[in-house]
Design a protein that fits this description.
Glucose Permease (Domain IIA), 2 domains
């Protein structure tokens, strides 16, 4: 079942790698609002500017949220790495790690989606590499090769391989990934975060039974992307 990505998570926390910058943003907003309300003689300006600063602080806080969700994954079930919209389901040659034709499934995240990412399967990280790059819009086909991105290859207990890329968008600042070779992954646990507009490309075996189509809205952890044979 697919779900909307609206702000409907009842339990959530702030990403552990973002607490400092979120705190700085909130403190900075409080200082500016205090100055505006106590030193500006034009109420219409001070209240308008204060409201804008408050909304930006709240948006920044929500952007770095990590929801507490129940994962139906494990075994041969592949769950979504990210919240967002499915923008591509196609057969593609994966040339970096798997090095064969795969099913490519791309999920695009807009600013209002949860940008924390989650492991799609239980397994072991066998491959990880980070690339610096350009800042193309994340929905651009060239973003997969040109943008800042990190690549993770996971081997399941039965030897099947799942590969995914975290792709930065035009306004992204950085990608945080917890991947490292030898790490044991558990479906539904956080594997990183992409800060501001971004995309995740996933590559699965050709015989995987895909459960999504282009245009579907998915939720990380909860939406089943595919089932492996």
């Amino acid at each position: 079942m697919l779900y909307s990505t609206c702000f409907d998570d009842s339990d959530m926390k702030i990403d552990k790698d973002s607490i400092f910058e979120v705190s700085v943003a909130i403190i900075f907003s409080i200082i500016l609002i205090t100055i505006l309300l106590t030193h500006i003689v034009y109420p219409w300006f001070s209240w308008t500017a204060s409201a804008i600063l408050f909304l930006l602080a709240v948006a920044n806080l929500l952007f770095h949220r990590v929801p507490d969700r129940k994962c139906p994954g494990g075994g041969k079930t592949v769950t979504s790495v990210a919240d967002g919209q499915i923008v591509e389901v196609d057969r593609k040659f994966e040339k970096e790690w798997i090095k064969e034709d795969c099913i490519k499934i791309s999920t695009y995240m807009d600013f209002f989606d949860v940008h924390a990412n989650f492991w799609p399967v239980d397994g072991t990280v066998e491959y990880y590499k980070y690339y610096k790059g350009r800042k193309r819009f994340a929905f651009s086909p060239k973003a997969s090769e040109d943008n800042e991105h990190s690549c993770t290859g996971i081997v399941l207990p039965d030897g099947q391989k799942v590969f995914f890329k975290q792709l930065a968008g035009s306004f992204a600042r950085r990608i945080v990934s917890y991947s490292k070779p030898g790490l044991q992954t558990r479906a539904g646990e956080q594997c990183g975060i992409i800060k501001f507009g971004s995309r995740v490309d996933m590559y699965l075996p050709l015989d995987a039974s895909v459960k999504v189509k282009k245009g579907d809205i998915v939720r990380a952890c909860e939406s089943v992307i595919a089932r492996l044979r």
